[in-house]
Fold Nitrate/nitrite transport system ATP-binding protein.
Amino acid sequence: MDNRYVHLEQVGMAFDTKKGRFVALQNVNLDIAQGEFISLIGHSGCGKSTVLNVIAGLLTPTSGVALAAGREIDGPGPERAVVFQNHSLLPWLSCFGNVYLAVERVFGKKENKAQLKARTHAALEMVKMTHATDKLPNEISGGMKQRIGIARALAMEPKVLLMDEPFGALDALTRAHLQDELMRIVQATGSTVVMVTHDVDEAVLLSDRIVMMTNGPAATVGEILTVNLARPRDRLALANDAEYHHYRSAVLEFLYHKELRPAA
């Protein structure tokens, strides 16, 4: 049985600029199965976020086909929720209000207010933020804001959770804690996740497969590395794991050689 949910075939993305036509992506082919955790990694300007935005429906490819659940992606949809590096919370709404807004948009026509509130509370509980229910975004830390952003996305019950460097702006300890929380949540929900990252350790720790992008312009998929590490994963146990370091070295080697040989 074919359980893939996302299918990209010969996807290209070009932009018109003052200096002419800029080709960001070229011939990108990628299949993502339900329940997979995929990381997109590569040097700056390699089109990682562009691929993510194509899957999100925020960009329409100029060539090729992008499908979700067998249907062409023709715009954003609640089945594909996005978590950005910038949490994008509405500052005048409480943490509860920010999550409730998304819940109401997706389920408001078929559920009553009590059910919508229950969904919101469940999402906040999942990311361990019930203590901040009534707080405004400017009253909580950066890590907590990202938790609310993740709660808002998960509350929509998306088929795919899309994350664009969600922990990139956080300090190392907060980042590690949220990575652990994300692993716990994904295991509990069985979510399909596509995440853009610059962090090799993050990619190896979290992913089932790591998609390594070539340098831009005209970036494409260079290699795909399958990470066969048992789940659940413990970062402390993996620190001395030879297989973990093998995967880490493979990604670093790819990135290093791409840096030595920039695109023509």
